[in-house]
Amino acid sequence: MSHPRPLLALTAAAVVTVLTFGAAGIATGSAAPSAVTIRAAAPAGQLPTADQLKAALLSNTELGPNFSEVPVADSPTAAGGASPVAGCDALRALLNGNESGPSSQLPHQEIEFDGPDGNPMLTESLTAEDATQLTSDLTVVSDAFTECHSLTFNDGTDASVTFTVTPVTLGDRKDAPAVRLDGTLAGVPLSGYLAVERFGTVALSYGFYQRDDPSSQLASLYYRAAVAKAERTLGTAAGTATAPPASV
Fold first, then answer.
1. What own/partner pairs with CB < 8 Å and gap ≥ 24 does 30-39 have?
2. Which of 22-26, 132-136, 207-211, 225-229 has the lowest mean pLDDT?
3. Which of 27, 114, 192, 226 could pair with 209 as two cysteines, CB 3.0-4.6 Å apart?
């Protein structure tokens, strides 16, 4: 079966684009990404370091031999720098805002994995920022997940695919914001998942994409693995709003 492969690859990358915290990627309401200010870092010593965040990310050891790590810089982008997301203003602003990247002032790490022939795809990021600001950012994401019902991805041409957006529970904590996206491209069923969780002053962002498979089993399995590793490594339970008194 043939597909418009450039759009298929871009759609996959867009669906699993993780939401960037503490950056120009966090918008409020329907504000355009360019209107968002870059966050200031918390005082030195109060946040985990980038190296500590990296150690808390999933690796091939957890995912198994069917996955291979993909340099984040190699992810597809829209033709001519066009915005790849349209539709729901709140979620569009969050996803499109990632073009600006996270603030260099904040500890941040991200990773991306491909399965065989790019199916499935998984991304995860961890960003540390001031606890009060993180609470505000998480509220923005949660509201966007709740308000958005449809989202369209395109490659800067006439090709596009529209997803329905449905709130779901991926892990053990029902209050953790997550959505499922369902669409069809050239007759091929596509599904994606976006989820966020917090560990004190650290936000985890998770994305999962697959084609020809309506089951959420793998998306949930790897999300739970990401949360469990972050809990163990950072020493903070999922959903906790305050960091532990000792350093990570």
1. 30/89, 30/90, 30/93, 31/93, 32/93, 33/93, 33/96, 33/97, 33/99, 33/100, 36/93, 36/97, 38/103, 38/105, 39/103, 39/105, 39/106, 39/129, 39/130, 39/133
2. 22-26
3. 192
